[in-house]
Amino acid sequence: MQEPTEHHRTEAQNQPHYFQWGLTAFCVIVSSVLVFYFLGWLPIIWRMIKKLLGILSPFIYGFVMAYLLMPVFNGLYRVLQPKLAQRMKRGTQIAKGLCSILSLLIGLAVVGVLLWMVLPQLIVSVFSLLESMDTYLDEISTWVASLLKDNPVIERNFLQLYEQFSTQVVDWVQNSALPQLVALMTGVVTTVSVLFDLLIGIIIALYILNSKDTFCAQAKKTLYSVFSIQRANRIIKRVAYIHRVFGGFITGKLIDSLIIGLLCFAGLRILMGFGLMTMDQSYALLISVIIGVTNIIPFFGPFIGAVPSTILIMVISPVQAVYFVLFILALQQFDGNILGPKILGNSTGLSSFWVMFAILVFGGVFGFVGMAVGVPLFAVLYTMATEAVNNLLRKRGLSVDTNAYRGPKRLDPETRAFVEIREEAPPVSAKERREAAQKARAQAQKENEKD
């Protein structure tokens, strides 16, 4: 006979857990309300984040400038520091300050020279192209009419469509594109706040270049005070890897794009010298700038830059557009197979599939900037995910080699070793299903007789 306490305990265990159910429902309701309020406050939070980024924009500009100038600073510091340290008591500090100023002056000089060389010609080419749009469209219409003169019906229909299209293009250029271009150019140059942020950013870049060792030491000190030594070392190693990936990729890509832009300009001048292209020199410079800037984007950059450039040349001459496409294909093959690997190497370690994935995802979220930095950013995330998976596999005593998992193999739960698995195809027809069922019944009958 059961004791009374055991009887009550058994009944209590058999009763539904109303308290747990109620607590779960309460937590779900509270979570739903919090999520609802968070979504309602999301626009306000986003505006606050944008305002905060606007306030911190001088620091962002300064950090970006200092990061891009870091290779120049390191090269100058390796040359000047030993000499000044031997001759002066505070030679190291003087070397840091001098290298910071020189690297910043070199960066500003490079940007100034490029703008002085490119910007006036770029403005001239854009405005001359816009002013000559009607003439170029008429030339294309005459060329198409000469091609279709033996098919008057197709010619008439095509010319009607082309006339509507050209009218819309001219209207868009004169009423939308040209005013926006003028407003953009004048706005960028005359905006006081942007110039002020850039000026403050230059000063901040000087501080960062001059005090980067101190900032790194303070960051290490903070990490070792908050985390364990092993975890702090892992964080430092991860930050060093991020710096290596981003620094190598961005710096190398900028150098690669500059070389490609110069080669494009030189190639167009050669084609113009041989008479294969008759465009103006300003157009060649405009197209070279487009090719060089879009080449910053991995994988898709050459195609993004070639499309508008080909359209510009097609307006002048469709035959010359064909020559240009062949030239760009040869140039991008040189960049992808020779120049790019020499400069960048395998700085990210990503396959072509993940490069495309990173560009599409980050480009869709952050635009041009996301397409430019999406590859190194995804490379860091991919490495972190890979290390997390490998750590979990090591804890379970399993192999971290991807090649070990290839093929039709499965892990044996007892030995934790890979065994070959031969999967038989399931029966498809009714006859095959009946034969399989008969075999299963016969096998079960044999096992019952043995028992």
Which class of secondary structure composition applies to the elements?
mainly alpha
Total beta strand runs: 2
The tally of structural domains comes to 2
Proportion of residues in helical segments:
over 70%
Task: Note the topology.
Blueprint: H1 4-14, H2 18-55, H3 57-87, H4 91-131, H5 133-147, H6 152-190, H7 192-226, H8 229-273, H9 281-294, H10 301-316, H11 318-344, H12 352-366, H13 368-395, E1 409-411, E2 418-420, H14 430-450
Helix pairs in contact: 3-4, 3-7, 4-7, 4-9, 5-6, 7-8, 8-9, 8-11, 8-13, 9-10, 10-11, 12-13
What would you say about this model in short?
With 451 residues, the chain is mostly helical.
Walkthrough of the structure:
With 451 residues, this protein is mainly alpha-helical. It is built from 14 helices and two strands; from the N terminus they run H-H-H-H-H-H-H-H-H-H-H-H-H-E-E-H. The chain has two domains: 58-221, no CATH class; 227-397, no CATH class. The chain has helices at residues 4-14, 18-55, 57-87, 91-131, 133-147, 152-190, 192-226, 229-273, 281-294, 301-316, 318-344, 352-366, 368-395, 430-450, and strands at residues 409-411, 418-420. A two-stranded antiparallel ribbon has the order 1-2. Strand 1 (409-411) and strand 2 form a beta hairpin. It is extended, with a radius of gyration of 33 Å. It starts with a helix and ends with a helix. The model has no long low-confidence stretch (mean pLDDT 77). Keywords: Cell membrane, Membrane, Transmembrane, Transmembrane helix, Transport. This is AI-2E family transporter. InterPro entries: AI-2E-like.
